[in-house]
Amino acid sequence: MSPQIRFPQTKRERTTTAQLIALNERLEVIERRHCMLQNTVEALGREAGVSVGSPCSHCDQSHMLIKDGHMYCPHCGHRRTI
Ligand SMILES: [Zn+2]
């Protein structure tokens, strides 16, 4: 195994590396929050008798909700039959 050669980083490279590390940390926080919210929405849906469907193909701003055989988007009101 050959030794790894490290070249000194320029100030710009150090800045870029620090930005990547900060972005990765933010992404991990956002992913955890997203997972928590997804679990909460699904639990709320179960309690309310509503299922969460696919993303709305009309506005792409919300998932479709499914209740009593009907599918609708709570954001734009788009409706589809199942
Ligand atoms: Zn929609």
Overview features:
binds zinc ion, 2 domains, 46% helix, alpha+beta, single chain, 4-stranded antiparallel beta sheet
In the sheet with the most strands, the strands line up as 1-2-3-4
Number of helices: 1
**Amount of beta strand:** 15-25%
* Distinct ligands, ions and cofactors found in the model: zinc ion
Number of extended strands: 4
Span of the ends, CA to CA:
60 Å
Structural class: alpha+beta
Total individual domains: 2
Q: Give the SSE string.
A: HEEEE
> The biggest beta sheet, please?
4 strands, antiparallel
Q: What is the alpha-carbon Rg in Å?
A: 22 Å
Mean pLDDT over the full residue set: 92
Shape: elongated
Approximate helicity band: 40-55%
Low-confidence stretches: none
Write up this protein.
This protein starts with 10 loop residues before the first helix and ends with a strand. It folds into 2 domains: 11-49; 50-82, no CATH class. Strand 1 (51-55) and strand 2 form a beta hairpin. By secondary structure, the chain is an alpha+beta fold. The protein has a 4-stranded antiparallel β-sheet with strand order 1-2-3-4, with helices on one face. It is elongated, with a radius of gyration of 22 Å. Helix content is 46%, strand content 20%. Zinc ion binds at residues 56, 58-59, 61-62, 73, 75-76, 78. Residues 56, 58-59, 61-62, 73, 75-76, 78 line the site of zinc ion (ZN).
